[in-house]
Amino acid sequence: MTELTGERSLSPFLALYYSRVFPYDDFCGWLSYNRHVSFPNREFVFDCGIEGTHEHLSFSDAVALKNKLRRLRPDKIEVGAVFSAPPRHIGNLPVEKEFVLDIDLANYNHVRHCCAGNNEREVCHDCYKLLTLGMRIIDRSLRIEHGFNHILWVYHTRHMYAWVCDKKARYLPNSYRQELINRLQHSHFFRSMKAKGRSFNSGLLSESIQRALSDIRPRFQQILMQQNLFEDAPNKMSHLMCIMPNLTVGRDVHSLIRSLEGRDSCEKFTELTKMIRSKVEMGIPEWVNHSRLMDEILIWYAYPRMNQNVSISMCLPLIAPFTTKSNTGEIAIPIDIDWAKDMNPVNAPTIERVMEEVELAIRNGHEVEVDTCLKPFLKIFREFLTNLFNSNDQQEDLPNNINYQEPNVDPPSNNQPKSTDMRACHQQ
Ligand SMILES: [Zn+2]
């Protein structure tokens, strides 16, 4: 087996990968929405490592894309917006782009004590559970609260990306993308949690937060144990203390955890839950408004943390499914929400492994696609495309005005847009 030793070391594998494996027809069918969207106006960026980056690329069809990929053999392919003309034209304007979310384990260092910084792939079986929990929460929020139906989940190293492909998502202007990611991140809620003297009670936890809690509760004790979150260590306690609403509550919580030294985090969780109930029932003034403190702790630790910059701009090219990563060779894979939690991220497909399987299939005279570990992920991608193309989504006209309405959300931030003319997206 050839070792990956540095930049461009993927090159020998990439030649075969782009010749025999990359799913051009499905990939281009997706990005042209079965010919409802102009594929030649879609922007691509190829990262070729030390050989440079090729920006503002576009292709007439799948054959032209294949020819260029076979010649340049990029380590990474990024997909950008669809423009009003081929993207290399100066003064071109973006017309549409999927709304993309990026749940990133790099944002979980407050809760991720298992492998951060120790693992080349930067993810292990334990912290991967945080990603799949985040995936579940965001998927439900996008569907139930925001009415999206066509969400392609893509896993790549420490990231879980959601490509929201509904027509109404692709035409969202940047101002709405910003507002939508703020709402999905519950930015107002998290800012409030860190405010001293706050007094949340059950009535102020929005339905969206309550729904997230219903996903977190059955999974939290496993996370608590794997990450040993209630260990009386300075870094762990400082993170817990920063959401305590006042000094008395913080002191009582820390004293209890310290008194339980030697017990595991789940036992501390149980005792903490009992103490909160007891203090509230006793009517202690500093405690009386904090009956939901444990729920707030769950949200604080386990609510998905996303890279906002990925979501807010229509013009930002983003890593595409079935592309690779130069230092590990790991392939970005479409993933199914129902079995994502059962996948071991350490076994995610790499280009090395796929190429070994391809070479073996060729030697044995077998069909290449059937014999590689990418097969189940290609199936997921094709099922997603079938649902997308069979829906009426592409045929439906966009409204002249978007009325962005979300029921049961946290208190709105300032400058919240209520509606805007669709032409606004062409002016940004
Ligand atoms: Zn880990």
TrEMBL record:
- Report the EC number(s), separated by commas if there are several: 2.7.7.-
Keywords assigned:
DNA replication, DNA-directed RNA polymerase, Primosome, Transcription, Transferase
GO MF entry, a single one: DNA-directed RNA polymerase activity
The keyword Transcription belongs to this UniProt entry's keyword annotation: yes
Gene Ontology, cellular component aspect: DNA-directed RNA polymerase complex
Q: Which family does it belong to?
A: Belongs to the eukaryotic-type primase small subunit family.
Species this chain originates from: Trichogramma kaykai
Name of the molecule in the record:
DNA primase
Question: Which BP terms from GO are recorded?
Answer: DNA replication, synthesis of primer
Q: Where is the composition biased (Polar residues)?
A: 396-419
State if Transcription is listed as a keyword. yes
- Classification via Gene3D superfamilies: DNA primase, PRIM domain (3.90.920.10)
